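Notes taken during the Thursday session

The instructor put the following on the board and asked us to keep it in front of us for the whole hour. The protein is Leukemia inhibitory factor receptor-like. We were told not to look anything up and to reason only from what is written here. First, the residues (588 in total):
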Amino acid sequence: MYLSGYTGVNMSTTRISNQTYALTVSLNEASNGYIDIKCKTSKTTYGACALIFYPPGDRDLQCETQNLKSVECGWKVGRNTQVPKAKTQYQLQGSPCPDGSEGRCSLNMMVEAGETNWTLTASNPLGTIQLHDRADLTKRVRMLAPEEVTASNINSRNISLEWRWTVDQYKDFSVTCEVQGVHSEKNSTSETSGVGLNSAVLTNLMPNSTYEVKVRCRTDTWRWGDWSRGVTLHTKGDVPDALDVWMQMKENQVVVVWKTPLANQSHGNITDYEVTWANTTTGIPHSEHSLTLHLDTSKEHSITVTAWNINGSSSPSTITTPNTSPDGTRVNSSWIIGSNGSFMLSWPMSPASSCGYIIDWCPTLHCQTVDWIKVPDNNTNATIFSKDFRDGLRYSLSIYACTEGAPVLLERREGYVREIRIERDAKNRTLFKSLNAKQKETDAEISWEKIPLREQSAFIRGFRLYYWNNDSTVFNVSTDDPEATSLTATNLEFTSYTFTVVARTALGECGNTSRSLTLNSLTDDLFRSIFIALGLTLGLLTLTTILCYTNWACIKHKVYPPIPKPVLMDNWLTPPVSSQSRPKGFFC
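Then, after some discussion, the predicted structure tokens were revealed:
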């Protein structure tokens, strides 16, 4: 004999007579109803179906009252008894419970002070159990929800509430009430205690914000009652919070920037901003969040910014610009590798810091607007994330120590949130511009223009030069200098070579560009130089001959002028008349 569908359970068969056997089974878990019992003989298999039912298994009865005119009891319902057409019947203090199968029952009766034994009876055809709870229900009052909750006074940061009780006895109870204000960004909760309490104040609210407010209360001896219906209330506005101000140094300019106040910071619509430096104050429209000042950057300047709304001005926010004179402190820039679209920064603690640290960042090229975060003074690490970050774009990050005066620059970093393989530029041109090849005896120097930063979508970690001749054996030479603009292949043969230059990045080799060069022997170069010199000499002689031939008459007249014949005249003894001498010269 055995049970169908049950394995791994303890079974034992006992023979009672020739045709009667008993099967004893220890089940690991309760059955959900029908069990097939099979008896296998040498000829065939017989079976029967056993129905397994359970008596009630309810437990943990607990009773309370809400209005002192009725008793509500609850308990944990036991497992399904599986009894067909015979549900478990429940009675509380002898009265039937229509909802007993759901684990609750109520009884209308006046609740008096003093302990009472409350009894729940559960029964089905297989058995009956009784649950007991002995308690003074005047100390187990679960209060009903307050009614008609209204606001008696609304300010910018607190709301005064009032409500009404529907049970007169509540006025004599010592109660604690919890008021909860639900807001889309920040919830606020406060508790107030008193006898017959029917008012409370909800504090720590955000100005110019909408809250859904509700109230619940409890006695000092029992659990929280029901929540009231929510009431929608709107707090009054207030002056804006102090602005988050920073600065950006640009040669002889100082750009003062501030973050747009959030709704929970502006406490109303911002009307404008005021920027004050030295003895000058200027107004800025609410749509703008920066001001460029032409100041002497070799000196420190204190600049104050305030925000205005219809309720007044914020507390002033002051930033002191640092001295950027040429002899000032400079820091070197190091690389940083992004992770999951962000930068993870860490730095050593600085003794210069008195109010934390500031980290700012912007694209290394075309840094139009700087962004920043402020880090508490007990932190020396931060994760920088921005929805404006773009893959393949290099960013510059600066770490400053916040001080009572001007911030102190500690470190600079440059990096990509995610590097992208370097391909051709925006005009589909090769990465290496003006690739030149020059022979130096048995060496070949391959040079190129420095690669602009705008074409680097990843860190260039060096370069590699591949070269080969007709026998197809490929050689290479490399450098780890990312600023290199040439590589030299040495000890080459006098034949034709193909040279290919690539940039080395973390994503592999990129931007391959090729150039061919034929190397000539030194004798060939000597003969070529002699032939060129002879050609130049012959050309010069030929040109001189042609010029002399075309101007021979003039040259002859000047170099060998004709000699005049002597002539005798009658007045050769007469003194010559004085006259102006004709100037002599060499003219053709």
